Amino acid sequence: MDKKIIAGLVIILIILVFWFIKRSKDGETKTAKDVKVDKKELPLSQEEINQGWYYWGDRSSKREGTPDDWIYSLEGTRSARWSAPSRQKISNSSK
Fold this sequence. Notes:
By secondary structure, this protein is an alpha+beta fold.
């Protein structure tokens, strides 16, 4: 192959590697204890606590009353949610 084509492919490959690394760091799992409450949002209801999860926009939109051990998952999807650790396997397998 031509050296210019090979150089171009190498550059594209390097860009993709850095993009995947950044993406994986952005999607790190954090518990509710690690994220501040968004005071503009409604407090978590007892029904939602009993249910063990609630849908919510993004990680920074954690609602007041979210238990400290709950985990934000499925970020960037329509199913993004805060959920109890015991509900993680159920919520992630239903994708």
